[in-house]
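This part of the workshop introduces the protein records we will be handling. A learned vocabulary of local backbone shapes supplies the integers on the structure line. Getting from the letters to the tokens is the skill we practise here. As an example, a complete record with its sequence and its structure tokens follows.
=====
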Amino acid sequence: MKVKICGITDLKTAQLAVEAGADAVGFVFAESKRQIDILEAKKIIKSLPESILKIGVFVNETKERLESIFEEVGLTHLQLHGDETPEFCRSLRYPVIKAIRVKSELDIAQITQYDCDYILVDSPSGKYRGGNGTTFDWELLSTQKIDNLILAGGLTLDNVLLASDIVKPLMVDVSSGVETNGIKDEKKIKAFIKKVKLGGI
């Protein structure tokens, strides 16, 4: 199973995540306590291996701004956490990850409307549209077979294997679950990735 470390704000943490075995790193351009500016993200991405997915997180941005930042920063995917329609996602020239906030089965039903590169399922909105450290009812996805699924929302070292066993995602996405006092924690990042990759061994 693949791992994405989201909410990267500095070069040291990005490199640590990659060295620890992360398959993807996420940069939040939307309003967030982990928001990063374009120049800093560009500088970090230049130092990362080509094989790593570099994902930009946005909320209700214009098509022009999304594509402009994608090109300038060197992203590989646009992760959309707002009210973007299936038509809007299809209109973009670059790979899209559409985030669906899950409260009920009605939210799960939305997934089939989107033919994006990946679908990311996350907890309902808190203060921000993601990265709030809360889980949702994973059982809502237990009967679904979605090949390109990314699981996010309150994942930690303690619950990631249980969540993955129920949802069976292609990738898990963690941000606050590898932080201490709001700062990315080297030991937690390494332990989280190791647990996912080795299945708790």
